[in-house]
Specification:
By secondary structure, the protein is an alpha/beta fold. The protein contains ten helices and five strands.
């Protein structure tokens, strides 16, 4: 996948095997990667070293991933953060989205889902895109496009290699951010706005 070699990712997970696997996957994709076992070490590094993307597990010893997200955003408001959640942690994922996460992915981590989330989290925002100015994340934009194509939550989940629960969370966030309460109003509102971002990967 195309990327800028200088792009740097900080990855936080307390499981050594996951750090090793994810670190290797991201390095092979052309990124510079720094892995941390906990939030404290990551925050210390952030104070002296810049990264382009932070990926963190929600459940960490000591400072949680949500707290790390909030603290990182406090110092670097524009920093993209992707949160990893375990099975059944959807309510935690919702908290992460409200705290400013660009996206979330579920364990067990799949290579395609991980690299897809990374790609879109690092994608430059198009200033003319009125939907992005409404606060939609790149992940939500991908889901919205599939909704406008008439895809069900199940179909969108299959196409984006995510769980159906993940798609449902994004769909609720999209409707809330656009101030609509049903799918008909959502389609009307979205089609009246600019969609300059490219369509999702198939």
């Amino acid at each position: 996948m195309p990327n800028t070699p200088k792009q740097r990712i900080f990855f936080v997970d307390d499981e050594p095997k996951i750090r090793e696997l994810v670190g290797e996957t991201l390095k092979k994709a052309g990124f510079r990667v720094s892995c941390f076992a906990g939030a404290t070490d990551c925050l210390e590094q952030l104070r002296t070293d810049k990264c382009d993307l932070l990926i963190t597990d929600v459940k960490l010893p000591g400072i949680s991933g949500i707290e790390l997200l909030a603290e990182a955003k406090r110092f670097f408001p524009s920093l993209s953060v992707v949160v990893i959640t375990g099975y059944g942690d959807i309510p935690m994922a919702v908290r992460a989205m409200k705290a400013g996460a660009a996206d979330f992915i579920e364990k067990p981590l799949e290579k395609y889902a991980l690299l897809s989330a990374v790609k879109y989290a690092l994608k430059p925002i198009t200033s003319t895109d009125s939907l992005l100015r409404k606060g939609l994340t790149r992940a939500e934009m991908r889901v919205l496009r599939l909704i406008l194509d008439g895809k069900s939550n199940k179909e969108a989940a299959r196409m984006l290699k995510r769980s159906q629960a993940t798609i449902e969370v994004h769909r609720k966030h999209i409707m809330h951010k656009l101030g609509v309460h049903n799918i008909v109003d959502l389609v009307k509102k979205a089609t009246s706005m600019e969609l300059t971002d490219p369509p999702p990967d198939k």
